[in-house]
């Protein structure tokens, strides 16, 4: 991540910048499935003047893939999402999934401009910066970002979360998969789910059981699941593929039509 300290950004400037598609991997917002993480990874933007809000979502088009070809093999979280989507696609078409299918999905289809999914983040800046640089040192001289809680409050109470709720209302995805149970409160806040109907579902493909929280509101279903890393996360291939089969119950073949 590039951090420029030449310009000091005001709270208002940062609020306007964050109230956009900045810090989102993107894809196709018209896709049936959205994945929402707490923070972006990897980080490919810069905090440099002038701050220009990203008014259109990015995507993993051919140019993007060529530019990042050498590093994409290390993007494990995105590979896990590809495994989920490949399993969802196989289930939707009542077919079996071979081991190579998710790799093909990752290499060719994930976050494509006209694909089946879209990836966004609650907060626009990455949780982990270059190396082990502490947040306070990385953003020294930026009073709107230090301490970190000031930045978090800006996103929650400023226009970042309002922007997220607005694009969800605009595009109305069928399913939003929220990654990381510990961010449940922020998912509810960002998407305006305080009055949503809430239930649960136990994902148990083998001897592993993970409880998902399921919320329904305004024609969209949110599934809050464990993160894609960590000891208690959705990390095994078995769980990832089971997650894909579960979300397939909301999908139809036409949701993957661009992939044919």
Descriptors:
9 strands; 16% strand; two-stranded parallel sheet; alpha/beta; seven-stranded mixed beta sheet; 9 helices; 260 residues; single chain
Strand line-up in the sheet with most strands: 2-5-3-6-9-8-7
Distance between the termini: 36 Å
Taken as a percent bin, the fraction of beta residues is: 15-25%
Unreliable segments (pLDDT under 50, ≥5 consecutive)? Answer: none
The total count of helices amounts to 9
In helices, the fraction of residues equals 25-40%
| Rg value | 18 Å
The backbone outline, from C-alpha atoms, is globular
Structural class: alpha/beta
Q: How many runs of DSSP E, i.e. beta strands?
A: 9
SSE string, helix = H, strand = E? Answer: EHEEEHHHEHHHEHEEEH
Largest sheet, described in full? 7 strands, mixed
What is the mean pLDDT?
92
Could you state the oligomeric state of the chains shown? Answer: single chain
């Amino acid at each position: 991540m590039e951090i420029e300290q030449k310009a000091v950004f005001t709270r208002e400037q940062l609020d306007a910048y964050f109230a956009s598609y900045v810090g989102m991997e993107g894809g196709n917002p018209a896709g049936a499935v959205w994945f929402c993480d707490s923070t972006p990874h990897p980080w490919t933007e810069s905090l440099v003047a002038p701050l220009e809000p990203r008014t259109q979502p990015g995507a993993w088009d051919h140019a993007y893939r060529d530019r990042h070809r050498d590093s994409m093999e290390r993007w494990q979280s995105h590979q896990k999402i590809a495994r989920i989507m490949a399993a969802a696609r196989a289930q939707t078409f009542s077919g079996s999934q071979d081991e190579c299918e998710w790799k093909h999905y990752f290499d060719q289809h994930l976050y494509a401009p006209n694909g089946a999914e879209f990836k966004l983040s609650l907060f626009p800046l990455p949780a982990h910066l270059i190396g082990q640089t502490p947040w306070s040192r990385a953003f020294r001289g930026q009073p709107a970002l230090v301490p970190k809680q000031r930045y978090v409050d800006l996103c929650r109470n400023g226009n970042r979360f309002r922007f997220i709720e607005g694009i969800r209302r605009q595009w109305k995805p069928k399913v939003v998969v929220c990654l990381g149970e510990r961010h449940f409160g922020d998912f509810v806040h960002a998407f305006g789910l305080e009055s949503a109907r809430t239930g649960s579902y136990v994902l148990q493909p083998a001897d592993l059981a993970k409880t998902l929280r399921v919320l329904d509101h305004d024609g969209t279903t949110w599934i809050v699941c464990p993160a894609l890393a960590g000891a208690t996360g959705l990390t095994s291939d078995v769980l990832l593929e089971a997650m894909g089969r579960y979300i397939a119950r909301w999908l139809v073949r036409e949701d993957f039509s661009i992939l044919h």
